[in-house]
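Translate sequence into structure tokens.
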Amino acid sequence: MTLLAALLGLALGVAMNALADNLPLWRRPGMPRCAHCGGPRQGAARSGILAWALGKRSCPFCGREMGVRPPLVELLATAGGALIYRYDPAPQEFWAAMTVFAIYALIVVIDIEHRLILHIVTVPAALLLGTIGSLDPNRGLVRTLLGGAAGFGILLGLYLLGGLFAQGIARLRGRTLDEVALGFGDVTLSAVIGLTLGWPGVVAALLLGVFAAGLFSSAFLLVMMARRRYVAFTPIPYGPFLVLGALLVYFGAGARLLSLAPG
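Result follows.
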């Protein structure tokens, strides 16, 4: 059954790649595409792993090679499927966890590549994960909705404060900032996290996410200063850190998953 769960993860990885190729540009699903020209990948090349294994990485339309994202996403999804099954093979828990994993992985891929958290992803995710949470006897409808409201409200407050900060900096510098630390997509993502975890789990997840983002930003700042390439207010995607906090809480801080890894 672990092998079947891994194969399910692989299939989800192929689907995530296809959605990540199409949703940011056309806001609708489609077949896997070349990241350079948008031409559809064909045959075995629709899977990043098969394309790399069979030497079919070149796009038939523009001739450029496939990047590392398609096979990497599929490998991580395959491993994720196997680990999630070993974490809890009970059907209800397994399918819920795979749904959470796939949705958040897609959000992270799109946010890293395009600096976007799309409503076409978060709105269906909120409905689906909110339903799953409401049916969970350990949370129920009230705690699920309270978690969603808390997640939305907390990040909305930070988003508004960030906007005021950006306006203040813009006045001091005499020009507007191209990007701000938090976008409204991060607010909607936080609401999805709240619906996933309920109350009070959402608070722990957001604290972990903010802490992880702070650590990464500090390390990034030090590295760029050491290389003398520091640029003030360099934008960093915030969504992956919020997702990290959510998954750590959802999977019990990750300790149990790590203990199940081979070796």
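Note: The longest helix spans residues 140-173.
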